[in-house]
Design a protein that fits this description.
Layout: E1 5-7, H1 11-21, H2 27-45, E2 51-57, E3 62-68, E4 74-79, H3 82-92, E5 97-105, E6 112-118, E7 127-131, E8 134-135, H4 139-150, E9 155-159, E10 162-163, H5 165-174, E11 180-182, E12 184-185, E13 188-189, E14 195-196, H6 202-207
Parallel strand pairs: 1-11, 4-5, 4-7, 7-9, 8-10, 9-11, 10-12
Antiparallel strand pairs: 2-3, 5-6, 13-14
Helix pairs in contact: 1-2, 2-3
The protein binds 1-O-pyrophosphono-5-O-phosphono-alpha-D-ribofuranose (PRP) and uracil.
Length: 210
């Protein structure tokens, strides 16, 4: 596999992902599982956050203790389905700034169409995590990453649940500076641009819109 990619294959993630893929899983369970997996994936995505130290007093004595250094993190959700990962990430880092990029895939051309964007100010010197469960053709993620860069972000990671090899290749070629974190790289894309075996349409399964 080419590209700067980390596949987080922890057994808990793989187990929950199997439940999500199963077509008989309910909308409510699907949403809950996505949030649970985002907590576990987030642990890896944020592993290299820089630390500082602070002087504290424990009940037993003084300590120079580690705390997160630098500016607050930025989380950018690619709507709609990105919000499923965003919810979990916000539990890990409640003080993060949050941005949204609204994109939908044209079903015929598979081109990403933008309908909304709102990003935090002064994003440049903040670590930024772009989240979307699905990296299929990568058209959506490539476009969103481009918009985030145009807004000034310089330290970006992309976090997804499932990726297709075609999407990993396309994203890595378009944004070689952005590492990808995923729970699985599946087999391939089908003729409609869906990940095989995948889990179907993430947004529809999250919100029960089909
Ligand atoms: C899905 C998914 C990604 C995109 C991935 O969104 O959440 O954003 O498709 O496909 P790509 O890599 O080929 O661009 P969708 O367009 O279905 O919109 P939704 O989240 O509003 O359902
Ligand atoms: N978007 C989805 O939600 N699922 C896929 O398999 C591909 C794109």
């Amino acid at each position: 596999m080419t590209g700067n990619i980390t596949v987080v294959d922890h057994p808990l993630i793989q187990h929950k992902l199997t439940l999500m893929r199963d077509q008989s899983t309910s909308t409510a369970s699907f949403r809950l599982l996505l949030k649970e997996i985002s907590l576990l994936l987030g642990y890896e995505v944020l592993r290299d956050l820089p630390l500082d130290t602070t002087d504290i007093q424990t009940p037993v004595g003084p300590m120079e203790a580690p705390i997160l250094a630098g500016k607050k993190l930025v989380l950018v959700s690619i709507l709609r389905a990105g919000n499923g990962l965003l919810d979990g990430m916000l539990e890990l880092v409640p003080s993060a700034r949050v941005g949204h990029v609204g994109l939908y895939r044209d079903p015929e051309t598979l081109i990403a169409v933008e309908y909304y964007m709102k990003l935090p100010q002064q994003i440049g010197n903040r670590p930024t995590v772009l989240v979307d469960p699905m990296l299929a053709t990568a058209n959506s993620a490539i476009a969103a990453a481009q918009r985030v860069k145009e807004h000034g972000a310089m330290d970006i990671r992309f976090m997804c649940l499932l990726a297709a090899p075609e999407g990993v290749k396309a994203f890595s070629e378009a944004h070689p500076d952005i590492p990808i974190f995923t729970a699985s790289v599946d087999s391939h894309l089908n003729d409609h641009g869906y990940i095989v075996p995948g889990l179907g349409d993430a947004g529809d399964r999250m919100y029960g819109t089909k």
